[in-house]
Write a structure and sequence with these properties.
By secondary structure, the protein is α+β, with helices and mostly antiparallel strands. It is built from six helices and eleven strands. Helix 5 links the parallel strand 5 and strand 6. Helix 4 packs antiparallel against helix 6. The radius of gyration is 55 Å and the shape is globular.
C-alpha cells in the first residue's frame, strides 16, 4: 500500500506540470496578436524597400534626364540653323559697297571695212533721241507724206496713207554712233516692227541707215515706186514702197512692200537672190553668213528672232533666199 506522503508529493508534481503547460500555452503566445514589438517594428522593416526605391529608380531617372537633354540639344540644333541662314542671307554687311548701276553705253567702235562696201560707208544719220531705242508709232507726218507721193506711193497702190504708220527708233550705226531712223509700215505690223527694232538696239545690232522710201531715192527705173535698187546699193533699211517684186518687174506683181507688210534690213550684208540667180545688191556677203556686224546669220540668231518672235517670217529660209527680208 502507498503512504499518504507519497500521494502528496505526486499531487504537487502534477500541479507544477499543469502550471508549466498552461504558462506555455497562454503566457508566451508567439502569434502577432500578442507580439506588440513585431507590430512596432513592422514599419521599420517595410520602410527598407521604400528607402531603397530611389536607388532602384535612379537609372530610370538618369535615362529620362538624358533623353530630355538630348531632345533639348537636338531642338537647339534644329532651331539654330534657320537663324544662321537668315542672318547670312538677310543681314547686310555694314562694310559692303553699294552696287552702282552701269553707265549706259553711248558709242561703239566703227565697223572695220569689209571686202565689199555699199555706196556710202558711213551715211549721215539723225542723232538719237532719248535713252535706249525710244521707239514710237504714229501717223505719217505731212512733210514725210509729201515726199512719198509720186514716188513710194502713187495712185492705184493697194493701201493708202490711213493704213500706214510712221515708226521712229534709235539704232546703232556702222560708225559706232547712236542714230535715229524712220520707216513706214502697215498699221497691222507697226507695233511688232517697233518691238523688233527695239530688240536689235538692245543687241547692239548695227544698221547702216534707216530712211523712208521717197523722193530722195528717185524713181524706180523698172516700174512704180521709189528706186529700191539705189536704196539697196546704199544699204538702206526700209519697208513700204509701192513697187513690184524686185528683179521680177515684168510680172507686175506687187511686192509685200507695196502693202507695207514687209521690211528689208541692211540690204548689202543680207543680199537677195532673184529667180534668175541674180544677187542684189552684191554677192560678197552671200556666202559669208557667219556672225558679223549687220548680218542675219541664221534662223536661230537673236537678231532674226527679234522679228520672228513678233510673228514675221524670214526670207533667208526661202529656196531663193532673201536674207534682208521679213514679212507677214
Amino acid at each position: 500500500m502507498s503512504s499518504p506522503r507519497r500521494y502528496a508529493v505526486s499531487f504537487l508534481a502534477l500541479s507544477l506540470a499543469l502550471t508549466v503547460a498552461l504558462t506555455a500555452g497562454c503566457g508566451n503566445d508567439p502569434s502577432p496578436r500578442a507580439s506588440g514589438a513585431v507590430r512596432a517594428t513592422t514599419p521599420t522593416s517595410t520602410a527598407v524597400p521604400t528607402t531603397s526605391a530611389p536607388t532602384t529608380s535612379a537609372p530610370t531617372t538618369s535615362a529620362s534626364t538624358a533623353a530630355t537633354t538630348s531632345s533639348t540639344t537636338t531642338a537647339r540644333r534644329t532651331t539654330s540653323t534657320p537663324v544662321r541662314k537668315a542672318t547670312t542671307r538677310h543681314t547686310p554687311s555694314s562694310t559692303s559697297t553699294p552696287v552702282r548701276a552701269p553707265k549706259p553705253v553711248t558709242a561703239l567702235g566703227p565697223v572695220p571695212r569689209a571686202g565689199a562696201e555699199p555706196s556710202v560707208r558711213f551715211p549721215r544719220n539723225e542723232p538719237a533721241v532719248g535713252s535706249g531705242a525710244n521707239a514710237s508709232v504714229g501717223a505719217i507726218p505731212d512733210a514725210a507724206w509729201a515726199k512719198m507721193v509720186g514716188y513710194s506711193w502713187t495712185a492705184g497702190c493697194p493701201v493708202g496713207r490711213s493704213q500706214l504708220r510712221w515708226v521712229r527708233v534709235n539704232f546703232w550705226g556702222f560708225d559706232g554712233k547712236r542714230s535715229r531712223g524712220s520707216i513706214v509700215v502697215n498699221a497691222s505690223i507697226a507695233d511688232e516692227a517697233a518691238a523688233a527694232f527695239t530688240r536689235l538696239y538692245e543687241l547692239q545690232f548695227r544698221i547702216r541707215q534707216m530712211k523712208p522710201m521717197g523722193s530722195s531715192w528717185g524713181h524706180n527705173p523698172k516700174g512704180p515706186g521709189a528706186d529700191d535698187y539705189a536704196a539697196m546699193e546704199a544699204d538702206n533699211t526700209s519697208a513700204f514702197n509701192c513697187r513690184y517684186v524686185g528683179g521680177e518687174e515684168a510680172s507686175k506683181v506687187y511686192s509685200k512692200h507695196a502693202y507695207g507688210t514687209a521690211i528689208d534690213v541692211n540690204d548689202f550684208e543680207n543680199p537677195y537672190v532673184a529667180d534668175d540667180g541674180t544677187v542684189y545688191p552684191d554677192r560678197y556677203f552671200l556666202t559669208r553668213r557667219g556672225p558679223a556686224p549687220g548680218v542675219f546669220s541664221s534662223s536661230g540668231s537673236a537678231a532674226v528672232r527679234a522679228f520672228t518672235s513678233q510673228g514675221l517670217r524670214w526670207g533667208g529660209l526661202w529656196s531663193n533666199p532673201d536674207y534682208q527680208h521679213f514679212d507677214r
